[in-house]
Write the structure tokens for this entry.
Amino acid sequence: MRIATWNPEPLRRIAYHNAAPGGGRTELARLEITSATATGLPPTLKGLVLTADLQGRERVGHLHPGAEPPLLGEQLAHDLDRLGVTGLLPLAGEVGVVLAGDLYADPQSRKRGGLGDVAPVWTAFARSFRWVAGVLGNHDSLSRTPYASQHLLDGTTATLDGLRVGGVGGVIGHVGKPGRKSETEFLLRLIDVLEARPDLVVLHMGPDAPASGLRGSDVVRATLEEYPPTVVVCGHCHADEPIHTLANGTQVVNVDARCVVVRAAVG
């Protein structure tokens, strides 16, 4: 698999509630859904949804007392499903979903960060889409994965429609804090994935790419560059543009606070 093109013109923008910097108040933000094409997609797949860092809540009018607004990822799943019905995107049942972590948000949209259950997002995608694969971010927990089509990865791989997908969750950091691994543990799990020769690698904390200004981990980049080129989907650090290329030809798709829908390249 290889990304061929990316179109920066949004197919759709989703307005949502987000915690303002510094906390204490809520602001409106927009999630952009853009499109890309790729070579090497299995013929049984009409597309892939790539997304991460959906740390917001749906804008809703009236809620029952004590009810929480749906997570942004739940809203995205429903909107993408509807776009498939209208013909603007492939039908959800023919599309795989890749989640690169940090899908939780404060219910009141007044505080950034935190830790919470992202099972509603995974479930919203699994109800309609062909399969869901991904990792947890450093703000995520996952209480359940009730569907056989859900594949939580952490140093492991899964072959889905002939596409070998591997992933490592969390970030390198202070061991003992949620969503953090020691550098050694993270890299050993990444090596286990890369030894399986994946078509797609899902990370929450991805590599840096100094040549194009992508922020991330230099040790993750160095490890990826020891192996044959692949495609990496990640989030955690925002980038102005999603597509970056490492020295060995590995493509990095940064989907922090964005959604990219990938379809097969024509010709």
